[in-house]
Design brief:
Layout (H helix, E strand, L loop, with lengths): L8 H5 L24 H18 L1 H8 L7 E2 L2 E2 L1 E4 L4 E3 L22 H10 L3 E8 L14 E10 L4 E8 L13 H20 L1 H8 L15 E4 L4 E3 L22 H10 L3 E9 L5 E11 L4 E8 H5 L9
Antiparallel strand pairs: 1-2, 3-4, 3-7, 5-6, 6-7, 8-9, 8-12, 10-11, 11-12
Helix pairs in contact: 2-3, 5-6
Length: 322
Amino acid sequence: MKRALVPGLACLLLVAVLSFSGCSTTGPAGAAPDVRTQADLAGFVSHAAHYAESSGRDAALATFSQKTGPFSRVDLYIYAYDSNGTLLVDPSQPEAVGTNRLDRTDVRGLPVIRIGAHVASGGGGFIAYLDPAPASGALNESHGESSVPKIGYVCPAGSDMWIGSGLSLSDLADTGPRGMPPAIGNMTDLVRRGAEYGWTHGDEAAFAAISDASGIFVDGEGHYLYAYDYNGTLLAHPHLRGAVGTNLIGLADPFGMETIRALADTARSGGGFIVFVWPNPGRENREELKIGYVLPVNERWWVGSGVYLSEITGVDTSFTPP
C-alpha cells in the first residue's frame, strides 16, 4: 500500500500517545527526553513537528538550534531541512546551516537526505543510515571508520520543512548481549560464520553451502548469505540461483545508489555495516531500507547478509519509490 501523502498526518497521529516519552504536545518543556526505543524516537520527532506547526517555523528553528535546549542533548537533537534540501538547523553542525545537502550521502554512499525527504513527504516514518559517532558534541563526517548504524525518524513540519532525529542501534533499550538488536547480532554472526566457512572449506564448497536454501546459512528468521566477487558478479545465493554468474555491479536503487558496487567496496575496505535500499519480498517487493553487513573472504570474493528496517521497528517501513 502506498503511503498517504497528507503532510504531517502520520506524525500528528502520534501526538495522542506521546505521554510515553514525557513530551508535552503544547510546547517545549524541560530537557530532551530519555529516548531509548523506536517509539520514543517517533514520539520525540512528532512532538517537535507539532511544536513547529503551532509555534511557527522561525521560533521552532531557534529552539531546535539550542545545544542544551528542550530538543537537544549531545546524542539526541532535531535537524531540519527545507523542501529543496537546504539544511535549516543542526546543533551538531551549525557551520553547515544554509548549505544544500540534497546530494549528501553517508560513508557508504546511501543518499540519506533524498531518502529522508521522500519518507517525510509521504507523512513521515523510520529510516536508517550510517553516521559518525559523536565526539564532544560534534560530528566529523570525514571519519568514516567511526560510523555506526542509526535508526532515524523523519516527519513533515509545516508545508515547506521536514525534520528528523536519530538514535544509534547500540543505544536502543532492547539491545542484546552484542550491544545491538538481536536481529542485527544474529545476522552479523551469520556473516562471520560464512566467511570462516569459506576460509576453512574453500571457495566451491562455500558457494554450494551458501546456495542451499535449506542449508546452514539460512536461519529460522529467513536471513541468508550471498556471495559476490569484487567486480560485482554473483557467485552464490539461496534464492537467486538463476542469477549466479551475472554481473550486477551497476545495479542502482531508485535514488541512484549502485548497491552492489557499494557493498563490494565496503568488503574490499575490510568489511562492516552498510545501509541500502532493496525490494522486500515479504512486502510485495516494495522498496525498503536494509541494514547489511559484509566481510571479505579472500582476494577473490566476499560474503554478506542484511536485516530489513521493519524487523527492527516492528512496523512496515517499505515505501513506493519516487
